[in-house]
Structures are given as structure tokens and as C-alpha cells.
Design a protein that fits this description.
With about 240 residues, the protein is an alpha/beta fold. It has seven helices and seven strands; from the N terminus they run E-H-E-H-E-H-E-H-E-H-E-H-H-E. The radius of gyration is 17 Å and the shape is globular. It holds the Pfam family adh_short.
Length: about 240
Amino acid sequence: MENSADSKIILITGSSSGIGAATARRLAADGHHVVLGARRVDRLAALVDELRAAGGTAEHHELDVTSRDSVLSFVEGAHKRHGRVDVLVNNAGVMALSTLDALRVDEWDQMIEVNLRGTLYGVAAALPLMRARGTGHIINIGSTAAYRVDPTAAVYCATKYAVRALTEGLRQESRDIRVTLVSPGYTHSELAERGGDPAVRAAVQAAAEALGMPASAVADAIAHAIAQPDGVDVNEIIMRSTAQG
């Protein structure tokens, strides 16, 4: 399928684990060429080997979404190698939860840098290339935290509310570029494994284990949005496991 009209060049940030890795597996299985980016290049290399062994086509490149130069290199490099960028999945994210009075300011900064600024850098790199072709698809990974605020999650929610707002703004500005926001609830991933208050982290990990859905379910939703005809834009997908309620 790689050379067929249905095959796309798809870039995925934060693809060394969780939703990003699951999305790479699903889209490669669908016949698309996936370009994987993350900081943990050893994991990316192993995933690319796995995808190729299964008959897919994939490549990987080191990526730090907090660096505009790194994001530009990732996106423009793929464009130079393949002549186009059909889809960008802005997936990289961090979640360090704590009450505001804990003053974990460095972690606030990290969430703003990765979740919001990293998404903006992806848009800034891909949008001009897609506009020049008159086609393309930008998929931003939000969260159910973009629709409600919980104690200990104020800054994380703020970043996801912002991603939701910028995605809707981009959608309204676009007539030839498809724009999709995918907002999962609890998902089995590594998102809650680092940073934040240890007690809060443990509680969220337990909830995610008990109530979460597989990352492959989110990958399926992303694949559904990509598979629509060019003139059809799936604007927003909000999804939770039935157990989460």
C-alpha cells in the first residue's frame, strides 16, 4: 500500500511509548510510512525494527519538541526526503501533577514547554508546507483534562485547555488543511510515571491501571480521522473507557 494513493507520510512526536508508539503500529499496519520522533532514540530504533519486521515502512529521528530547531529539522527533514508531509500527530506530552501551593515551578514550565509550546512548534513547522501543497492534516492530542479542572491538575489542565483552543482556532482558519483534536481520558501509558507529587502520581497510576483504556484504542481513533476523505474533517474526538464513566 505504501505506493498507493491511500498511503501517507505521517510524522508522530512522542512516539517512543504509549499513544505515540501505538499510533505508529496502527498506521504502519494500515500501510502508511511513519516518521517517528522522540528523545529516547533507542526505543525508537527498536520500534522501527519491529514495524519493518511486520512489513511496514518506518524511520526514526531524535526529537526534542521544546526546541524549535529540533522540530523544524524533524518536519522539514521528512519533507525533503519524501517530498511531502501529509499528517503531523502532535502527541508528545508530560503530566506532573501537584497542588499549586507545592510551587513545583520547574514542572509547570516543563508542561508548558512540552504540551503547549511543543504543539505550537509542530504547527509552525508543518503548516507552511501543507499550505503550499493545499492539503494536509494536523492532529493534536489533547485530553479530557481540556474540559474539566481537577485539584492537583491545574497547570496540566491549563496546557490542555490551551491545546484545545489553538486547535479550534487553526481549524477555523483552515479551508484546505484538516485539523483534529483527540482527547483521551485515562489511558495505559507512561504519562503518569514521572514528575509531580509522589502520592498524587501513585493515585493517578492506580486509577489509570483500573480505569484506563489501551493506547491502541486512541490509535484507532487517530486512524479513523486520517482515513476520512480529504473533504471530511473529524474536528474533535473525546474518548474514555466505559469504566471511567
